[in-house]
Specification:
alpha/beta; 220 residues; 2 domains; 10 helices; Rossmann fold; globular; six-stranded parallel beta sheet; 50% helix; Arc Repressor Mutant, subunit A
Length: 220
């Protein structure tokens, strides 16, 4: 519905951080802060009860692995999007998050505006990654020597470009007029040919190999 506020749930074991973030979200006219979960157990219950549009999630929860919680809930609540907010910016964690279906990965040390933009992007079917985190991932990705097109078909390259624009398989499928199942098949093929384990890693590899120009990454 046009004009309907985006509902947001915060999942974070740090009470003060969560409360401050909740206050900031409450002050946004187009967002609706629906609550705060401190543990993985609470997160599962509240996501299923409240069905928020977007969840801002710390992967380091007191009782659980937040990324595993996100993956579980993505299967139970496929319309809910998850944006990871963390102080741990390791490349391996980014890869796990994207493989679990997260729609964003941001540093807790970043500006509030980045978080608000990520909420809107996730709700729209896109993906957001902090610039510093993406740069670190690009530096840590080993270039692979191969054909200019990476062995990709024209359709696979088209899917790769849309992945680089921050779209998830559902959004890519809508853009190309194909089924989500077919799109996921293309994504799997792209990952396999590039030797990547997640969409984000595929974009990093493709950028290093010159298959994507920098302005096509992260929706820029």
């Amino acid at each position: 519905m046009v004009g309907e506020a985006i509902t947001v749930l915060v999942v974070d074991g740090h009470q003060t951080f969560a409360e401050l973030l909740g206050v900031a979200l409450t002050g946004q006219p187009d967002l609706s802060y629906v609550g705060h979960a401190r543990t993985g157990e609470q997160a599962i219950r509240l996501v299923q009860e409240l069905r928020p549009n977007v969840v801002l999630l710390d992967p380091d929860l007191p009782d659980a692995d937040g990324i595993a919680i996100a993956e579980l809930l993505r299967h139970r609540q496929p319309d809910t999007r998850f944006v990871i907010l963390t102080a741990n910016n390791e490349s391996a964690l980014v890869g796990r998050a994207t493989a679990a279906g997260a729609s964003g990965f941001l540093s807790k040390n970043g500006p509030l505006g980045d978080v608000l933009n990520a909420v809107h992007t996730a709700h729209g079917g896109g993906m957001t990654v902090s610039t510093d985190i993406l740069a670190r991932l690009l530096r840590s990705t080993t270039p692979v020597v191969g054909p200019r097109a990476g062995g990709l078909t024209a359709r696979e390259h088209e899917v790769l470009v849309l992945m680089g624009s921050g779209l998830d398989p559902r959004a890519i499928a809508r853009r190309l007029g194909i089924s989500v199942h077919t799109c996921r098949g293309y994504v799997k093929a792209v990952l396999g040919k590039l030797g990547a384990h997640s969409q984000l890693e595929a974009v990093a590899v493709a950028t290093r190999r010159g298959l994507l120009s920098p302005d096509r990454r992260n929706g820029e």
